[in-house]
Specification:
Layout: H1 10-24, H2 36-43, H3 47-59, E1 63-66, E2 72-75, E3 81-83, H4 90-96, E4 101-112, H5 115-121, E5 128-138, E6 141-150, H6 167-175, E7 179-189, H7 193-199, E8 207-216, E9 221-229, E10 235-237
Parallel strand pairs: 3-10
Antiparallel strand pairs: 1-2, 4-5, 5-6, 6-9, 7-8, 8-9
Helix pairs in contact: 1-3, 2-3
Length: 245
């Protein structure tokens, strides 16, 4: 059955209708919405139009689309907020708030430092570094991919450790390295094909790219990381306070 649309672009009118339905029916996080095919039949439009409407709602953070046999379109729960101006990393903050966080090691090995990694770790280009790639998930939903690099001189034997645990806690317990400073640069971007697959998102979903350097209390850089974060699963907040003499 065709659904009467306003004079607004069809995809925006459909987005309005689905948004109003979520509110009117009292749908909450995890509730399933109609499939794309059902929406095509309901509104009498092309599938691409329906997808554009769902793109709008997904970018607003109102819905999430999951792949696989149990996939579909769902109302999204209100995501937790993590602080960037905090020494604890995102996984540690979410665990502290009682959320179930798991980390799966995607890769662990030794590579030659590219110029960016070398500059961040204050070593010579092409000098060997440890590279660890991990996928962090919240309640089974992929949240973040972390590509981290470490100077072997500061963390000898790192690759022999259980790298699915908290790395900052491991650095302190195993090598007595206390992290006291971090710098982070955030840029928006899209996922590469392998990142989209690991995070279970569409290729065109906007993501946050975070480049982070962690330093010890002696000022030594011990970790440089390139993270890719799904902002629809966790929101990032930065708090700045004025300093007065």
């Amino acid at each position: 059955m065709n659904f009467p649309l306003s004079r607004r672009p069809a995809y925006l009118a459909i987005a309005d209708a689905v948004r109003e339905r979520i509110s009117r029916c009292g749908l909450t996080g995890g509730d399933r919405l109609p499939t794309e095919r059902e929406l095509v039949e309901e509104f009498g439009v092309a599938r691409m139009t329906v997808r554009s409407a769902l793109d709008v709602l997904q970018q607003e953070g109102l819905i999430e689309r999951r792949r696989g046999r149990s996939g579909g379109t769902f109302v999204r729960s209100v995501p937790p907020v993590v602080e960037l101006n905090c020494m604890e990393g995102l996984p540690q903050q979410l665990r502290r708030d009682g959320m179930e966080i798991t980390a799966r090691v995607l890769h662990a090995g030794q590579v030659d430092a590219d110029p960016c990694v070398a500059a961040a770790l204050q070593i010579a280009p092409c000098e060997p570094v440890y590279r660890v790639a991990r996928l962090g998930s919240v309640k089974g939903t992929p949240l973040i991919i972390q590509h981290s690099f470490y100077p072997p001189a500061l963390v000898p034997g790192l690759l022999e450790e259980d790298l699915s645990q908290s790395i900052p806690e491991l650095l302190h317990a195993r090598w007595n390295l206390r992290l006291t400073r971090k710098t982070e640069v955030i840029t928006p971007g899209l996922a590469a094909d392998e990142e989209a697959e690991a995070l279970a998102v569409d290729r065109d979903l906007p993501l946050l790219h975070i480049c982070r350097t962690l330093l010890t209390e002696g000022g030594l850089p011990v970790e440089y990381s390139r993270d890719v974060l799904r902002p629809d699963i966790a929101h990032v907040r930065v708090v700045t306070e004025a300093q007065y003499a």
